[in-house]
Amino acid sequence: MAENMVTEYLIIGNSVAGVNCIAGIREMDRDGSIVVISDEDVYNYSRPLISYYLGGRLGIDALSFKNEDFYKDNRVELILGTKAERLDIDRKEVVTSKGVIKFNKLLIATGGRPVIPAIDGYAEDIEGIFTFTNLSDAKRLDGYIKRKNIKKGVILGGGLIGLKCAEGLIERGIQVSIVEMSDRLLSMTLDKDASLFIEEMLKNKKQCDVLTKETVNRIMCDGKLLSGVTLSSGKNIHTELLIIAAGVRPDITLVKDTFIKYNRGILVDEHMRTSVPFIYAAGDVAEGKDMITGNNSVIAIWPVAAKQGKVAGMNMAGSDIIYDGLFPMNAVDIVGVPVISFGITNPSETDGYEIVKERRENIYKKIVLKDNRIVGCIFLGRIERSGIFQGLIKYKIDVSRFKDELLSDDFGLLVLPAEYRKHMVRGEGIEV
Amino acid sequence: MAKAKNIAEFIIERDEKKCIKCQACVRVCSNDVHNYDEETEEILSDNIKCVGCHFCEDICPTGALTIRRNLSETKENAHWTRDYIYKVVKQASTGGILLTGMGNDRPYKNYFEHIVLNAAQVTNPSIDPLREPMELKTFIGRKPDRIIYDKTRGKYILKERVTNLLELELPVMFSAMSFGSISLNACKSLAKAASASGVYWNTGEGGLHKDLYPYADRAIVQIASGRFGVNVEYLEKAAAVEIKIGQGAKPGIGGHLPGEKVSEEISLTRMIPEGSDAISPAPHHDIYSIEDLRQLIFAIKEATSYRKPVGVKIAAVHNVAPIASGIVRAGADFITIDGIRGGTGAAPVAIRDNVGIPIEIAVAVVDQRLREEGIRNQASIIAAGGFRTSADIVKAIALGADAVYIGTAALIALGCHVCQKCYTGKCNWGIATQDPYLTRRLNPEIGAKRLSNLLRAWALEIKEMLGGMGINAIESLRGNREQLRAVGLNEVELNLLGIKHAGEAW
Amino acid sequence: MKPRRILIKEEYCIGCRLCEVYCITQHSPSKDIIRTYKGSEVRPVSGIYFEEKGSVSFAIQCRHCDEAPCIENCLTGAMYRDEKTGRVLHNRDKCVGCWMCVMSCPLGVIKIDYEKKKVVSKCDLCIDREFPACVEHCPNEAILLVDEKGERVEKKSG
After folding, report:
1. Whole-angstrom Cα distance, residue B67 to residue B14?
2. So what's the ipTM on this one?
3. C108–A386: do the CB atoms touch at under 8 Å?
């Protein structure tokens, strides 16, 4: 890149929010120059797929969700391997590791960075400790496993990232111990029944050990090489591989020293604007509206990043589109068990929530209701048609008339109120 | 004695090589003829339940099904045919009146098939309807005795006051079929097609459902002995009013729509409580004479400010000509005569098959009588009951009808296969049923299109026949019996029909 | 380009399920109904969900949304929009079974293969023929094809 660049639109971050921002801008403005900078060196890939890469199911090429033509067709200058170091709001410029870029409109889509809890003996330069959020993590991990012929590893954190990583390792024949501080896996996403179901499935693999109510207290090294960990129970595990998957947090370094408002993430309004009108934020770094609670929160999931990126892009290019909020939702396949969840999955029963659920064989379904409206659900083992629930949550449809049918195996559009159903099937303005 | 069983009327043949077990037949049959056996993965069909509606045959994607008549024969006997034997068998087991639907299926002499049309040769030229104008436009209603007009500044102005006439693009209308006897979708199909084709449909004694209001300007509304659905709006919205005295399929018999068919929609339309039997008495209890009829006709005319034609429908019976004369003198603007082959949703077999006279003769004698009395212009004659083709219509008009009503033919266009089981309410084609599972099968868009197609095709054929005769307007055919000749009719028949035998010149 | 799409008239669905039969046939190797059902071919899964309750029934398939959340949320790019026709199509080779599309589809019309961990079927508006098979063969015109303006497209006869 040139020392000093000038562009109409600057996008920091090249993952799903950034990419959808490009699409959003181009829907409104065919000509304005777009520059995308990314501190990674791959032109585009799907972060959730790195576990498939780790497990050997997908090659590097298969990880991209947009091909290279996407950037060409949209006339985007993509600058890889470049880190945005400082943001100067007054001068409307971003100082990067390779020069200064002046912009007219800016999108911050820097995503999240892994949380490293305080652990005795932890140091950044210890070999054998990894995080698992981006492709370079996965590549380094892959290289390390090959080089050291690793047969056994410890994963700290039983959330989605930890479990998908565990799955990847298991597929490579590595014995995995998952260490989870709370009393169950996926405690942020699922309820107890679903968690136990997944735990059971994992343990059935025989290559996997799940240690709940535990954490890593100490890291032991052999020189600069990891040799083992001590758990809070005092148990020692001899291992040369520790993956820290204790969560992610919005990467807000760029705005820390500016007057852009942030809480946990960068606060955005319904146009995805930050407190500075020409600067937008989207994706895992942004703290936007949660449709169910109505409050701002960071919802670090793909659909939110996609939608926010699109809305931000269109608004940056002069549109007046409103992001009406989303709610947490996850689709994942863990050790062969498909799981989809929406919204509030594990409420305390005292707050007026009603729960209907069913567990049989390898199927678990749970619907959380409040005032006859669905506010969350879990589908495990059988997930067809679950997308319909997203609309029921979004449009706050009164389900009292067909509550009995919610768990039925042939649940479909037919039981929904006729007006809503017709709106759905006509395909007019379907947007969820 | 062992109880004799009824025999299957039809045999269902399933070509196993073609049957893909998609079970479409199982799902669609309202008579539960076809059943899928989960264990053997076979579809079994129960012949005895089959009514011969051919819906499954039609829906089968591979043509694996054929419905055949059961040829199981009783000993040859010209008198005791199988039909009669099994009627007795049935009544011996039920003790009830035999019911049926649609029109008379007995082999009475069909005069249409004994009448042939003329064509122009040498002494007068035939007309090619593709190259020259051909008029099928028909007006129904009272026409003035003479035309009195003023001619001012080159313009003719009619001085005689003429009641509004019904203007038909071709002399065919849809006969009275009530919402109740047929489904709302069937009514919609008829109404839409009538509107699109420039003809009229008839509500029957079922009232006018709100969904049909957009087509009310093409509706002839009926007032029958039950007076169902009659209100001010009904009369005001309609194009014409028809007082129904009788019906060709069951002269002298009333109607009975069982309570289970009186759904919410029907109850609203007929203005009777939901689930109650809708009984149309055999007679109008306020009409015991021509004078009584005149009172009703004029009551309706008053109610509609003399803006709409008011007609009277009767079944063709022995005394049809004098009755028709009385009706015209009572003030009717049109008279509908329904012949012995007229259809119905339900009638006792004994009545349907034995009461009334053929429409061909009835039209001829009524036309003749009204002409003789010099009152033919005062009312139009609409013939009904058994019209199957455009040629039947041409013959009826030449015998003296102004227009014809078609019922069965229209229903066949909508899918009906004349299985005669209308009265069961299980019509697989979604016509003679109120079961929501079945009525949805009749998509009025398709129905209206098919009916319009039929009318269009008949109009083209009628024009061809007229052109062949060297006639360029249907007006010139009306009562023009010289265009007809009989084949194989005796002198009495020739006299009644007012036609010559084939071979006789003008 | 906005795709043509399928419109259903549930009030005219007769519940015969022939749409599924013809969808399956159309997506089979031979495209011949008898061979598809009676031969040795692997029978494909239809792209249609048929729903029935009491006297109401209908067939529902992908609406090829303008803003297709299944495409937006697909992790691999397996779900994509065909630029020429505007259809939402699925590339089975790229699919890894992340189920994001299943989660995102508001109509819930994406069918999945739990064994192979892939999306197994979704309506492609019949890629190999001008007119979708379900529309053409619906005996009661309960499944219609409409153009981008919402106007009905009818099969040219003959």
Report:
1. 9
2. 0.92
3. yes
